[in-house]
Structure to design on (211 residues):
């Protein structure tokens, strides 16, 4: 059985933070972002193989409900291991958003989950307001804004919190210090994460219908 020592994540610029959860390591950085690494010694609860990504997106959508939104959920590889790269956003109180980037590395009997949590601080909403003014979304006959809020993979999905056009990666360079831009920069190179040789030999994840 693997342990959390079978995965090594770069932590230059990050300081350790104590964690009460067994199997969890946590760090923070000067921007106020959090990095955590969890190891779960049970079979992952993903509903499908990583390359069959739609059921995984549907699961996350259900889990989020009205409390958060999918920004993106895509298959990636860490070394030779199929993994899921996801970004979510959650409304803060009273204003702003917290962006959560997660990299799930599943095996048949265990998994690693790396998370980067980046809150919006100080003046909030500047990215959204600037992009809104630039793209000038149309209005319908009732004055409702069109083509601004939309689930990236299921346009018919309706929820209180949804991805908007300011969340597109094309705006990251214009807002390099925005928490969403920081999340994407942290997740940009999954192969900076190192798995042990033992992990490379671990039986791969098998979805329930494939077992």
């Amino acid at each position: 059985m693997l342990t959390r020592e079978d995965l090594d994540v770069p932590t230059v610029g990050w300081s350790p933070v104590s964690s009460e959860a067994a199997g969890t390591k946590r760090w923070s950085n000067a921007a106020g972002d959090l990095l955590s690494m969890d190891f779960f010694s049970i079979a992952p609860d993903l509903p499908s193989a990583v390359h069959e990504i739609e059921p995984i997106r549907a699961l996350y959508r259900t889990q989020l409900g009205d409390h958060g939104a999918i920004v993106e959920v895509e298959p990636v590889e860490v070394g030779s291991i199929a993994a899921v790269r996801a970004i979510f956003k959650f409304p803060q109180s009273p204003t702003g958003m917290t962006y959560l980037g997660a990299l799930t590395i599943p095996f048949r009997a265990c998994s690693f989950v790396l998370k980067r949590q980046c809150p919006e601080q100080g003046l909030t909403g500047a990215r959204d307001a600037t992009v809104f003014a630039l793209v000038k979304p149309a209005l319908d006959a009732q004055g409702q804004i069109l083509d601004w809020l939309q689930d990236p993979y299921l346009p018919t999905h309706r929820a209180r919190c949804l991805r908007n056009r300011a969340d597109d990666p094309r705006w990251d360079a214009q807002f390099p210090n925005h928490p969403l831009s920081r999340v994407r920069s942290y997740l940009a190179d999954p192969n900076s994460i190192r798995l042990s040789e033992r992990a490379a030999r671990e039986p791969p994840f098998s979805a329930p219908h494939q077992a």
